[in-house]
Amino acid sequence: MIQPVTQRGAVTDLTQWKQLSDLSLLGKEALYKKHPEQVGNAIDRIDVRPDKGMVKILFEKNNWEVQLDGASGAVLSIDVRYSDWIESLHDGSIFGDIFKLTAMNFLGWGVILLAITGFWLWYGPRRLRGLRWKRKE
Length: 137
Prior knowledge:
This protein is of the alpha+beta class. Helix content is 47%, strand content 18%. The protein folds into 2 domains: 14-86, Roll (Nuclear Transport Factor 2, Chain: A), CATH 3.10.450; 93-136.
């Protein structure tokens, strides 16, 4: 499983939900209680899903995700998001921001260079053939 299944909360009306500050504390407590080695792992972002009645709390280290019911604060799921790891591998940020910036710039310029030279390899012979036909006439 690349990403934990999105659970459903009980209430979709935001006026009946707990405050985000309370939900963030509940999410931290749930993660730290189930996985004590994660104590100190800070929240990276909170994904609010009103239509599903739940919030996803995403942590900075090790790609942990805690899903909570928005109204009651009950824990719906605690799991690792492997999709974030795959994304960081894909964009190079797994090796650090300097590597990502440097490598992606070289790769981008490399793709542009390949496109230009590929066009020339396609267009050059056509152009030469056209010049030969003009000389024969």
